[in-house]
Amino acid sequence: MKKFIIFIFSALVIAAIVLVYFFFISSDRRSNGTTFVIPFIRNAEAHQDWAVEALSTCNDAPFIMPTHGLIGYLWNDSFKIDHRHQGIDIFAGTDIGITPVYAAYDGYLSRQSDWKSTLIIRIPSDPLEPGHQIWTYYTHMADPDGSSLIAADFPPGTSEVFVKAGTLLGYQGDYSGDPINPVGVHLHFSIIKDSGTGKYLNELEITNTLDPSPYLGLPLNKNDRPTFPIKCLTTAK
User: Fold this and answer.
1) 89 Cβ contact partners less than 8 Å away, ≥ 6 residues apart
2) If you count Cβ atoms within 10 Å of the first and of the last residue's Cβ in the chain, which end, N or C, has fewer?
3) DSSP label at 117?
C-alpha cells in the first residue's frame, strides 16, 4: 500500500511538471516573434496583415510608427545570456534600401562622424513626462559592407538639425558591422534616457532605455508576453 501511494504521488508530481512545462512553452510561443520573423522575411507579400504601417499612430500615442513591417523582436527580449534587447526590431520583408525610415517625433537630429547606419534624435521634452529630455535611436540603415542608406540630408558629422515627425531619415538595411554576417533587413528603434547633462546614455544597456510601449501605443515589452503579430487599427498622422 505504501509503495502504491508513493507511486501515485510521484505520478501526480510528474504530471504537474509536464503541465507547467507545456503551459510555459505554449505561452512563450505566443510571445515569441521568431516564429513570425522567418516566414515574413521569406514571403512578406503573403503576410502583410502582420505588418504595421509607417507614419501611423496607435491608440493616440505620441509617436508615429517609424517604418513599415513586422515587429519581430521586443524591448526586453533576450537573445543570449546576460543580454536584453534595448528596443524593437521592425522587419521590412524587402531588399535593402527599399523601405523608408521616418522620424517618430519632432526633435534635433545628430549623426556621429563614424556612424554608417545610425542616427539619433534629441527630444527636449518627453511627451509623456514633460520637462525630461529623451532620445530616439535608429540603426541598421546601411548595407552589409557599411554603405550608408541614410538620407543625404544627414551626412556624417550632422549635429542638432531640427526634424519634424515624419521626416525621411533613410532606408532599412542589414548592416551588422560584419560583412560576412549581416542581420536581416530591419530597423532597430529605441528610446534612450538622458544622462542629466544633456547627453544620451549608452544604448547597449537596457537600463539606459525606456519601454517604447506607451510611446507607440502597442504592447512592446516582452515581459508582458503580448500575442503576435503586434499591430492595431491605425490612423495616419
Assistant:
1) 71, 72, 73, 186, 187, 188, 189
2) N
3) S
Radius of gyration of the chain from its Cα atoms, rounded to whole angstroms: 21
Do the domain assignments include residue 6?
Answer: no
- In this structure, what are the phi and psi dihedrals at residue 194, rounded to the nearest 5 degrees? -85, 150
Q: pTM of whole model > 0.70? A: yes
Region of residue 146 (left: phi > 0; alpha: psi -120 to 50; beta: else): left
The full DSSP string for 162-206 is: EE-TT-EEEE-B---S-TTSPPPSEEEEEEEEB-SSS-B--TTSG
The answer to whether residue 24 sits within a structural domain is no
C-alpha cell at 136: 530616439
Q: Does a structural domain hold residue 15?
A: no
> pLDDT for 202-212, tens place per residue?
999 999 999 99
* pLDDT of residue 33 exceeding 90: no
Give how many domains the chain has, as a whole number.
1
Distances (CA, A) of 206 to 48, 71, 126, 172, 179: 30, 18, 18, 23, 26
- Domain membership of residue 90 as a residue range: 31-236
Distance separating alpha carbons of residues 36 and 29, to the nearest angstrom: 10
Question: Would residue 95 count as lying in a domain?
Answer: yes
Nine cell digits for residue 218: 502597442
d(CA 33, CA 11): 35
Amino acid at 115: W
